[in-house]
């Protein structure tokens, strides 16, 4: 299973330099999960930089993957991970979601850089 982080989705949508690394994983939606936090972050970013139509299209594509809600278990694990790795709340929830589903995190976010089960690509 793969969890695509917000930075990877945005790189894919903008056809950025690392889009080629993320495309095969993103396009295999049967093996992809996302946190509701990713959906929030990407929708907000696209809405603020483009328009509502583009944001809706991005969200629709993301929702072809399995969207994972923040549960009690994910929240508690995220708090532990946040303290252990000094991560911001959103990133710790995303990482906890990946850990709960035994998923690899695909990202450009340096908060994840040296963590287990992460495929990090420098921007």
Describe the structure.
The protein has 123 residues and is an alpha/beta fold. The chain has one domain (2-115): 3-Layer(aba) Sandwich (Rossmann fold). The protein is built from six helices and five strands. The protein has a five-stranded parallel β-sheet with strand order 3-2-1-4-5, sandwiched between helices. Helix 1 (6-13) packs parallel to helix 3, helix 3 runs antiparallel to helix 4 (52-62) and helix 5 crosses helix 6 (89-100).
Write the layout of secondary structure elements.
Blueprint: E1 2-4, H1 6-13, H2 19-26, E2 32-35, H3 36-49, H4 52-62, E3 66-68, H5 72-85, H6 89-100, E4 104-107, E5 118-120
Parallel strand pairs: 1-2, 1-4, 2-3, 4-5
Tell me briefly what this model is:
With 123 residues, the chain is of the alpha/beta class. It has six helices and five strands; from the N terminus they run βααβααβααββ. It has one domain: 5'-nuclease (Rossmann fold).
Structural class by secondary-structure content: alpha/beta
Q: What is the residue-mean pLDDT, rounded to a whole number?
A: 97
Helix fraction? 40-55%
User: How are strands sequenced across the largest beta sheet?
Assistant: 3-2-1-4-5
CATH topology: Rossmann fold
Task: Write the H/E string, N to C.
Answer: EHHEHHEHHEE
Q: CATH superfamily membership, which one?
A: 5'-nuclease
Gyration radius over CA: 13 Å
Helix count from the secondary structure assignment? 6
């Amino acid at each position: 299973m793969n969890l695509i982080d917000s930075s990877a989705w945005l790189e894919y949508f903008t056809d950025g330099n690392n889009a080629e690394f993320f495309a095969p994983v993103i396009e295999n939606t049967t093996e992809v999960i996302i946190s509701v936090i990713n959906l929030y972050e990407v929708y907000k970013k696209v809405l603020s930089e483009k328009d509502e139509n583009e944001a809706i299209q991005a969200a629709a594509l993301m929702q072809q993957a399995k969207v994972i809600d923040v549960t009690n278990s994910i929240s508690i694990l995220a708090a532990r991970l946040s303290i252990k790795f000094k991560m911001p709340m959103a990133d710790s929830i995303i990482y906890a979601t990946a850990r709960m589903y035994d998923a690899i995190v695909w990202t450009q976010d340096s908060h994840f850089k040296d963590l287990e089960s992460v495929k990090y690509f420098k921007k």
